[in-house]
Structure formats: C-alpha cells, structure tokens
Design brief:
Elements lengths: L17 H24 L24 H11 L16 H6 L1 E2 L2 E2 L10 H6 L27 H12 L24 H5 L3 H8 L2 H4 L4 H13 L9 H4 L1 H5 L21 H5 L24 E3 L15 E3 L6 H5 L4 E2 L5 E3 L1 H6 L2 H4 L4 H5 L15 E3 L13 E3 L38 H30 L2 E6 L3 E3 L3 E10 L15 E9 L5 E5 L14 H4 L15 E5 L5 E4 L20 H4 L5 E4 L8 E9 L5 E12 L3 H6 L12 E13 L1
Parallel strand pairs: 3-4, 10-19
Antiparallel strand pairs: 1-2, 5-6, 7-8, 9-11, 11-17, 12-13, 12-18, 14-15, 14-16, 18-19
Helix pairs in contact: 2-5
The structure holds heme C (HEC) (6 copies).
The site of one heme C (HEC) has 22 residues, from helix 9 and helix 10.
Protein name: Cytochrome c-552/4 domain-containing protein
Keywords: Signal
C-alpha cells in the first residue's frame, strides 16, 4: 500500500498551477539524477531517486495516490461509513470529494488544513502544544487502526495536489486490473468479524506469507531458470497472480492483497464452476458494492439497502469440487503432486455424501457434521444495523485447521499494524509510546489467535488415526520378542496424510529402554539434524548411523530416474544432474503415453482412508533381567529439516515441531 515517498507538501504552501508544477518537478528530477550520478562516481551506495513527484498530466488529470487512499479508507473506515447510514459515505470517489459535514466539506482540493477528511485522521503523539496538531485523532475509533505517519502524509499530499482520482487517459479503452478491484479481507472484517478472525489465523491467510513456501518457490524458480512461471503462486496467491505479479517476485515486493493469500474473495467472488484446474481460479473483479458475494444462502439479506454487497447463492461452494480446484495439484507435465480431492472422490466419505466442508468447516475440525449441527448465529454483524434485521443461520468455521502453522514471528502473523511497514520496529527503545503500546497489544492478540489455531490443529490431527500395540508382558533375557504396532486410519475422507504428502511425515516411533534408561531398540528416532534415519538423512548417507530398517513412515517420496537407469529417491523434484529430472520445466516429451514423464514418479506411502497398516519390531533383549519400558508413538511433522536445508531456509529448522498424535506405553518383565 505504501509506495515510496515522492514529495512532501509543506503546510500552507499555495497550490501551484499545473504547468508550473510540472517544470519544477522536472528540475527536481534532474537534480536528483545528477546527485545520484555523482554519488555513484564517488563510490557511495546510490540512493533511490526520492524526489520524483507524480505526474499530473493534463488533459487527463489523475493522481496515483488515489488507489492508496481508496484502499486505506476501504480497510479502516467504510465498515461504518457506508451509504444508507448516518455516517458520511466514504465508499466512492464522488462521495468523498462531494461529502459534507454540515457546512464543512470533507475535502477542499488543495487545502488539507480545511478538509474534514484530513482533520479527523491527523494526529502526532509528539505534537507541540499550540501547534494545532492533536495528539490523538478523532478517527478511526480503534487505536490499533490510527493512521500511520506515512498514511497521513499520503492523504495530505493527495488533497494538496487537488484530490484527483486515478483515471486512465480517455483514448485508453483497456482497463487494467488493479488492486482496487479486489476487496481486502479487512473490508469484510467490519461486518463479518467472526469469519475474519477464523480466516486470519488459517493457513489460507498464511499461504503466501509462509517463509517455507517462499523459499521453496524461489529455489525452484532458480533451478528452472524461471520457466516454472506462476505455477506455484497461482494457488498460494490467486489474487496476486490475477494482478500479474510474476512467480519470482519476493513477498516484500508484493501488493498487500496478494499477501492475503487465499483471501475471502478468492472463494466468494466466483460464480462459475471451474472444475479441477490446479488453481488459477476465476475471481470476479469489482468493488465491494459492485459485484455479488456468492455464498451458501439463497435469501441473503444484505444489499445496497444497508450499504453492503448483493448476495447470491452458489450451491457449488458447498461441494468438494470447489475445494478440489486447488486441492489437487498437477504440474504441467502431469505429475500429481497433491491429491486430496482425487483421494476424496474415491473415498468412503464421498459415497456417503460427506464433503470437505462438513469435516473442515464444522465445529469439530476433522469430524463430519450435518448442516443442522452447526452453531446458530448471524452471518453478519453490521455496524449501524439492528441485529434483528439479520436472520439466525447455521454457521461454518473458517479456521481450516491443518498440520501447517505459522513460522513467522508473532509480530507478523496473523496481523501486522500499518506503522510497522514504515519503520524498523525491532528496536524497542527507538519506538514511541504509542508504538510500544500498540505493538504489545498486537502481540497479545496474535498470540491468543495463534493459540486457538494450535488447539484446532491438534484437534484435527487427533481425528486422523489410532494405534494398537501388542507387546509381550514377560520374556526371558537374551530372547528376541516382537512389538507389533497397527495404525488404523479413522479418516474416511482421504489418505493420511494427504495434500503436501511428499513432505508430511506421519510415522511410528518405537523405543525400548532397559531399567537404567538405556535405549536397546529404536525405530522412528531422529538423527542429529532432526531427520528420520531414512535415505535422506545426512548421517545415514555419511554412514554415521544405520538406516532405520523398520521405519513405518506414511510420507510419499519423489522417485527419479538416474543417468545409470536406476531409480533414486530425491528431496527436490528438480536438480542439476546431467540427466534432467526437471519436471517443473514445460513438458518436452511424451508424458501422455506414460501418464507421467518417464523419468519421475511419486511413491505413495500414505495410509488409505479407513485402512490399516502394521509393523512388527523385533526387539533383542540383552542378558540383564529387569523391567523394560516400551514406548510407541504416532508422530506428525509438517516439514522435514532436510527440506529446509535444500530450500535454503535452515534458520527455520528449530521451529519444526513433532506433534505426538497417539501414545502407548508398556513394560516387559524380563526374567533371567
Ligand atoms: C467503528 C466505526 C467507525 C469507523 C471504523 C470509522 N468511523 Fe468515522 N465516525 C464514526 C462515528 C460513530 C462518528 C460520529 C461520532 C463522532 O464524530 O465521533 C464518525 C464520524 C466521522 C466523521 C465526521 C462525519 C460523520 O460522518 O459524522 C468523519 C469525517 C469520520 N468519522 C472519518 C472517518 C475516517 C476517515 C475513518 C477511517 C480512517 C473513520 N471515520 C472510521 C464511526 C466510525
Ligand atoms: C477457502 C475458501 C473460503 C475462504 C477463503 C473464505 N470462505 Fe467464507 N465460506 C466458504 C464456504 C465453502 C462457505 C459455505 C460452507 C457451507 O455452508 O457448507 C462459506 C461461508 C461463508 C459465509 C456464510 C456464513 C457462514 O459463516 O457460514 C460468510 C458470511 C463467509 N463465508 C464470509 C467469508 C469471509 C468474510 C471470508 C474472509 C475473511 C471468507 N468467508 C473466506 C469458503 C471460504
Ligand atoms: C457492510 C457490511 C458488510 C460488508 C463490509 C461485507 N458483508 Fe458480506 N454480508 C453482509 C450481510 C448483511 C450479509 C447477509 C447475511 C444474511 O443473509 O444472513 C452478508 C452475506 C455474505 C455472504 C453470504 C452470501 C449468501 O447469500 O450466501 C458472504 C459469502 C459474504 N457476505 C461475504 C463477504 C465478503 C467476502 C466480504 C468482503 C469482501 C463481505 N461479505 C463484506 C454484510 C457485509
Ligand atoms: C484458491 C485455492 C484454494 C481453495 C479454493 C481452497 N484452498 Fe485450502 N488451501 C490452499 C492452499 C494454497 C493451502 C496451503 C496453505 C499453507 O499451508 O501455506 C490450503 C490449506 C488448506 C488447509 C490447511 C492445510 C494445512 O496443511 O494446514 C485445509 C484444511 C484446507 N486448505 C481445506 C480447504 C477446503 C475444505 C476448501 C474448500 C472449502 C479449500 N481448502 C479451498 C488453497 C485453496
Ligand atoms: C471425514 C472427514 C474429512 C473429509 C471428508 C475431508 N477431510 Fe481433510 N482432513 C481430515 C482430517 C481428520 C485430517 C487430519 C489428518 C491429515 O492430515 O491427513 C485432514 C487433513 C486435511 C489436510 C491437511 C493434510 C496434510 O496432512 O497436510 C488437507 C489439505 C485436507 N484435509 C483437505 C481436504 C479436502 C480438500 C477435502 C475434500 C476433497 C477433505 N479434506 C475432506 C478430515 C476430512
Ligand atoms: C493447485 C494449487 C497449488 C499449486 C499449483 C501449488 N500449491 Fe502448494 N499447496 C497447495 C495446497 C492446497 C496446500 C496444502 C496441502 C496440505 O496442507 O497438505 C499446499 C501446501 C504447500 C506447502 C506447505 C505449506 C507451507 O506453507 O509450508 C508448501 C511449502 C507448498 N505448498 C509449496 C508449493 C510450491 C513450491 C509449489 C510450486 C511447485 C506449489 N506449492 C504449488 C496448493 C498448491
């Protein structure tokens, strides 16, 4: 939202005629360039050309500040300031520039100091007494939302420059898509606070923020020389992709709406079936009031009458196919990277008519619920509209818990404040009192939110599978006994794990210890990098520890053909071998005849719906008698440490949690 500062209007400076302004701006530009040039000559780091003012080009006057103003007001004000309410309408350009409060005008072009819009939001906590600048603003009411210094400056500059709209020249009849055409989730928050809260801590909101995703995507971009294009970002940021942001754009350079990932409109601004499409969902552009929101109800009560949007029923939104547009990932060469939807299609749940939404949007994450079991409440709570005008309905939950969780600091996700985009907020002592207070408040809120997300995540995972263990209670020393473990899936909707299965690790750890606590048998334990002792472990490859022969791990593996004609399990599906297994580049061969490129496949290890799998662990008891302890666990980890090394993000390794889903403990009494 915050573009580089261009030029600052000094208070009380008279409005310059446009022609004069242009020439003086050109002068600034030349001086600026000259300065940069000379700095460059003297070896100093070139500073960005700061003084370039925006071009207000007649006869098509426009102001590139307008989009920022519009989005700022949309996120912070229009929930209360809508048409058809007591409050001044701040939803459109016309309403804002023509708006009045009594005799005062909302905006007096050229004179921010006389414009209510500016006077209501202006504040400076350090303002000198008598300066006329208040220490707290009139608006907006929520302290966390007060306009940042940069935002106040933008409003001031925009009004000083004549409060123009951003318009294309008249002869230009192609309207490019801009950020303005996709309402932010923040805008929905005003009337849908519960859906917003749930969504904001969901992995849908995190999809593009994810540092693991960013590192993974950029690694693949580098290895495919960019030919992968927007393949990865099309699902993780459907709006960013629609806006034309390319695949290798860093997150810090993406638009704010792009960083909202699978934002509200990515699901609610779609009127048509798109079928299985590996992303690229067709989101309808348009301002909040201009286009419908599509949802589950055929009798929505919103609409312009109460200054909200029109609603329409989209029965398709309640089907699994709707989720399947993104939850089946097939790459351009036909490799089925993720199969949640395909698995569901063949599942017992599908036969019983149990959809993704029933398990993932009900009150208990992972357990199917019928429509009528859902809590009753209001789908919208609209400021200024009496509650009774909105009917009670059966509501859904938008948390969409999954095994993923945020790897970002608690100051960055789920929420971040606007002023934090404008300065380095990590130096506490350099922060003002307001900044310290709001940062503390933000972290409190974020931690609370993340804790709920954690609880939901564990709830979901605990509904995946159970373990059954048979282990002898007595034995003789020196004997070899079997500890038998069965994992029984409780999940009728898809395999366990599903989705990002090449990385998800769901495994059994079986550890037997003698009475002194020494380990005498271990499977499913971790090496010093925190990895399982499988073919990807550095310690196993370096012969420092033995490969885990009995490992029961439901992770899927990428298998590639090597130049010798043998197959090998690989961590990344792209490498720099002579024999290219570069499955992410555009297809160059005859994938069709194989259904996959001949050089690559995925070995599926996941546990099919409601099925079970067993493993027998032969434990050789040593000569000593005594009580031996057996500990069996079903563990889950969303990403393996080796992957983090391979995508250049080893600093994230310490945040990877092993979640224990089920645990069994027993003893073996060993007689001499
Ligand atoms: C939570 C609801 C809410 C939000 C959000 C909000 N306002 Fe207001 N606003 C009010 C209320 C209530 C009043 C009338 C009481 C008052 O003046 O304090 C008001 C009054 C105003 C007025 C005086 C004209 C009028 O409509 O009465 C202006 C101008 C204004 N707000 C601007 C803004 C701006 C700009 C933002 C966003 C940066 C904003 N408001 C955000 C509730 C809100
Ligand atoms: C991943 C897709 C997805 C995202 C993202 C999403 N929704 Fe929904 N939403 C749904 C589905 C699906 C339903 C209907 C489910 C059903 O009834 O079975 C729904 C239902 C709703 C409803 C109807 C009332 C209720 O709670 O059931 C509202 C209102 C709503 N969503 C608002 C939002 C808002 C606001 C956001 C963003 C903060 C959002 N949604 C984000 C998929 C999504
Ligand atoms: C000014 C208030 C307001 C804002 C802002 C708002 N909504 Fe709504 N929304 C409503 C009302 C009122 C309803 C009707 C609730 C009902 O019928 O029970 C509604 C209903 C919905 C529904 C259900 C539609 C149906 O018929 O099934 C969806 C989905 C929805 N909104 C999504 C959104 C999204 C996404 C945003 C942000 C882009 C948003 N809304 C912003 C007030 C608002
Ligand atoms: C526009 C694409 C898109 C649509 C539509 C979509 N999802 Fe997602 N979903 C994603 C992406 C991308 C992620 C991964 C986010 C992450 O973990 O970083 C995700 C994550 C999830 C997760 C959490 C997974 C985890 O590992 O934590 C669940 C559960 C989920 N989606 C269920 C659904 C359901 C149910 C629907 C249908 C109502 C749906 N999604 C619709 C793209 C989508
Ligand atoms: C019968 C209930 C049920 C149904 C139906 C169901 N799920 Fe799940 N889902 C679960 C449970 C329980 C888990 C946790 C276990 C796991 O991670 O596999 C889960 C996990 C997930 C995950 C995270 C998987 C991972 O391990 O990374 C995604 C993504 C997901 N579901 C998407 C979907 C989609 C999309 C559909 C519909 C096509 C669907 N689910 C249908 C219960 C269900
Ligand atoms: C068709 C949609 C789609 C495409 C294309 C896609 N993803 Fe995903 N991605 C998903 C979904 C859905 C999930 C959640 C699955 C789950 O939780 O099991 C996900 C999860 C992930 C995760 C784990 C979540 C996290 O944030 O740590 C990573 C990493 C990831 N994807 C990377 C990629 C990369 C790299 C690419 C490009 C090669 C890619 N994705 C392409 C839909 C997609």
């Amino acid at each position: 939202m915050d573009r580089p500062k261009r030029f600052i209007v000094r208070e009380g400076s008279p409005r310059m005629p446009a022609a004069k302004k242009l020439t003086s701006q050109l002068a600034v530009l030349t001086i600026g360039l000259g300065l940069v040039g000379s700095l460059w000559l003297f070896g100093a780091a070139p500073s960005p050309v700061e003084a370039v003012p925006h071009t207000i080009s007649l006869p098509h006057p426009y102001d590139p500040d307008w989009p920022d103003i519009y989005m700022m007001l949309a996120k912070k004000c229009v929930g209360c300031h809508r048409p058809g309410t007591e409050r001044t309408d701040l939803t459109t350009y016309e309403a804002i520039v023509e708006g009045k409060i009594g005799d005062d005008r909302m905006v007096v072009p050229g004179r921010p100091e006389d414009s209510a819009l500016f006077l209501y939001v202006e504040w400076d906590e350090h303002a000198a007494v008598g300066s006329g600048v208040p220490r707290t603003p009139e608006m907006p009411p929520d302290k966390l939302d007060w306009l940042s210094p940069g935002q106040q400056e933008t409003i001031k500059r925009w009004i000083a420059n004549g409060a123009l709209e951003y318009r294309l020249p008249d002869h230009c009849d192609i309207t490019p898509l801009t950020e303005l055409e996709f309402p932010s989730a923040k805008q929905c928050q005003a009337c849908h606070p519960n859906q917003y809260d749930e969504w904001s801590r969901s992995m849908h909101a995190y999809a593009q923020h994810s540092p693991a995703f960013e590192a993974f995507n950029l690694t693949l971009m580098e290895r495919t020389s960019g030919t992968q294009g927007t393949f990865c970002t099309r699902c993780h940021t459907p709006i960013g992709t629609a806006l034309g942001e390319n695949g290798n754009r860093r997150n810090i350079h993406r638009s704010r709406i792009s960083m909202e990932g699978i934002t509200c409109v990515a699901c609610h601004r779609r009127s048509t079936k798109h079928y299985k499409s590996s992303g690229r969902v067709p989101v309808e552009p348009g301002k909040l009031q201009d286009v419908c929101m599509y949802g589950p109800f055929d009798n929505g009560v919103g609409g312009p009458g109460i200054g909200s949007h029109n609603s329409a029923e989209l029965p398709y939104i309640k089907t699994s196919q709707f989720c399947g547009e993104c939850h089946d990932v097939v790459n351009p060469q036909g490799i089925r990277l993720e199969e949640a939807f395909s698995e569901w299609q063949n599942s017992p749940a599908a036969k019983e008519g149990i959809t993704c939404q029933m398990c993932h949007m009900g009150p208990v994450q992972g357990l199917p619920f019928q429509e009528c079991d859902r809590p009753l409440g209001r789908a919208a709570i609209v400021p200024g509209v009496p509650e009774e005008k909105i009917p009670l309905r059966h509501l859904t939950n938008h948390t969409f818990a999954g095994p993923d969780y945020s790897l970002l600091p608690d100051t960055e996700f789920p929420e971040k404040l606007d002023w934090m985009y404008e300065k380095d907020y990590t130096d506490w002592n350099a922060l003002s009192r307001y900044e310290q207070e709001t940062l503390t408040e933000l972290r409190k809120k974020n931690r609370y939110s993340l804790r709920i997300a954690d609880e939901k995540r564990l709830e979901l995972l605990s509904n995946a599978a159970d373990i059954y263990v048979t282990s002898p209670q007595t034995a003789r020393s020196g004997q070899t006994v079997n500890v038998d473990v069965t994992v029984q899936s409780k999940l009728s909707g898809h395999s366990f794990p599903t989705g990002f299965t090449a990385e998800r690790q769901a495994w059994i750890s079986t550890i037997v210890r003698d009475s002194q606590g020494h380990t005498i048998f271990a499977s499913g334990d971790l090496d010093k990098n925190g990895d399982l002792r499988d073919e990807h472990s550095y310690a196993v490859l370096a012969n420092e520890v033995q490969r885990d022969r009995y490992l029961l791990n439901f992770q899927n593996k990428f298998i590639a053909l090597t130049s010798e004609g043998t197959e090998r399990s690989v961590i990344l599906s792209v490498n720099r071998h002579l024999m290219p297994i570069n499955i992410l580049r555009p297809a160059d061969g005859i994938s069709e005849s194989f259904g996959r490129p001949p050089i690559f496949r995925i070995a599926k290890g996941s546990l099919a719906p409601l099925s079970k799998q067993s493993q027998s662990y032969p434990v050789h008891l040593p000569a000593a008698a005594g009580t031996y302890h057996v500990e069996v666990r079903l563990n889950f980890r969303h990403l393996p440490p080796t992957l983090m090394d391979h995508i250049g993000a080893p600093h994230l390794k310490h945040q990877l949690q092993v979640v224990v889903l089920k645990e069994w403990c027993g003893t073996i009494e060993v007689a001499p």
